[in-house]
Amino acid sequence: MSSSAIAVSGLRKAYGDKVVLDGIDFEVAQGSVFSMLGPNGAGKTTTVNVMATLLKADAGTVVVAGHDVATATKKVRASIGVTGQFAAVDELLTGRENLQLMADLKRVRSGRDTVTQLLERFDLVESADKASSTYSGGMRRKLDLAMTLVGRPQIIFLDEPTTGLDPRSRRTMWGIVRELVADGTTIFLTTQYLDEADHLSDRIVVLDDGRLVAQGTPEELKRQVPGTHVRLRFGGLDDLDTAARALAGSTRDDQELTLRVPSEGDSRSLRALLDTLDEHMINALEFSVHTPDLDDVFLALTGRTSAEVVAQ
Ligand SMILES: Nc1ncnc2c1ncn2[C@@H]1O[C@H](COP(=O)(O)OP(=O)(O)OP(=O)(O)O)[C@@H](O)[C@H]1O
Questions:
Q1: Phi, psi at residue 235, to the nearest 5°?
Q2: Is the CB–ligand 1 distance for residue 48 below 6 Å?
Q3: Which of 157, 163, 162, 212 is nearest to 186 (CA)?
């Protein structure tokens, strides 16, 4: 068995004439967080559904926890947990009953203890005996994830787990993801939130229109996009003029009295820039360094900003 938790190669899927996955390849290391980013309709859920044995691929090989999804469906299902868009929470049952039902379905030994531990871990003890229909969105998602953890799956698929959550609940979910990974669980996450992928992931792939347009660590992806620059703001047009002439490759904004200067962003190049300003006896009222973030990467790769994607 390879050390990869998931290995996908040449994965293709079409609905009629519409090609949704056009031959994608990636590997997910055991005990890591792997994020798939992509705009609406890029094919993220389709990819998760194939890996989770809920959908058959047209071509390609998908191996999950050492088993081929095409031939060893049961073994794959016994190794994974899926949470997100196909939420399993039954609203008529209480939180405790939902968890107990899952423990019974998965034939977990000492199911009652597991349920108690999960209620504690997810801070759901107080509401454990209330109908889950009365839960807030954040509580329902926590319950959904808790249900996924019954039976301790090795690999967990989280399909957009924090969409619509308030910042505090998002942070709670992030904390739980980190704990799971520290315990050796592998997490496959799909998200439209770049900051989420940036904070949590060991590796990220960007899916657009059925193809992987980039993959790497968050840092590697950010490095693919040139754009570290220093922004200077001056007190008047004279200073702006002088600085623009002295600093090669800079772009000026006369309204804002600002200058954008390309820079490596390291201490030596910043010192050289300040020396140049000193030599010309110019004082910048403001000085800030901007490094590209995943939003810039996303824009460069897909032609869309994440805000546009979320607003769709
Ligand atoms: N059962 C289906 N029949 C036909 N087309 C489908 C079916 N399921 C998905 N599609 C299409 O496949 C494409 C990819 O869908 P998918 O749900 O995988 O995208 P996604 O990246 O998960 O998007 P979202 O973020 O909106 O969930 C979309 O264009 C969708 O309309």
A1: -85, -20
A2: no
A3: 157
Tell me if 15 CB under 6 Å of ligand 1: yes
Ligand 1 atom closest to 16 (CA): 4
pTM given for the model = 0.77
Is the separation of the CB atoms in 162 and 199 below 8 Å? Answer: no
Tell me which residue has its CA closest to atom 17 in ligand 1.
45
The residue extents of the domains of the chain are 4-223, 229-290
Q: Closest Cα to residue 108, out of 140, 145, 66, 153?
A: 153
Q: 42-94 pLDDT, tens per residue?
A: 899 999 999 999 899 999 999 999 999 999 999 999 899 888 654 678 888 99
Distance CA 302, CA 210 (A): 12
Question: Which tens digit of pLDDT belongs to each residue from 133-155?
Answer: 999 888 888 898 899 888 889 99
ipTM: 0.94
Of 1-5, 40-44, 216-220, the one with minimum mean pLDDT is 1-5
Residue bearing tokens 């390849």: 25
CATH of the domain spanning 4-223: 3.40.50.300
Smallest CA-to-CA distance from 32 within 184, 217, 152 is with 184
Place of tokens 């996009």: 225
What ligand 1 atom has the least distance to the C-alpha of 45?
A: 22
Among protein residues, the one with the nearest Cα to ligand 1's atom 5 is 15
Q: Which atom of ligand 1 is nearest to the CA of 42?
A: 21
